[in-house]
Amino acid sequence: MLHVLEQAYLAEIIDPETTGPIATGGTGELVLTTLGRHGSPLIRYRTGDLVTPPSRRAPAAGSTSRYAAGSLAGPTTWSWCAA
Known about the structure:
mainly beta, 6 strands
């Protein structure tokens, strides 16, 4: 299970070919947008990691990690995408 810090990142799962939304329960590429601007610009990163979203939100792990983005299905390649 992959956990994303909601306070620091916006996590999206997109179709790697169309960059559109995935079908419910489908596998897609994890895209992270940084929300903080201290030390890093606001950039949307295509991670190249293929993930499957969970069927429900995971319970909090500690005080900051609250969203389970899904299980890692496999890597693709690292690249940038337009924000």
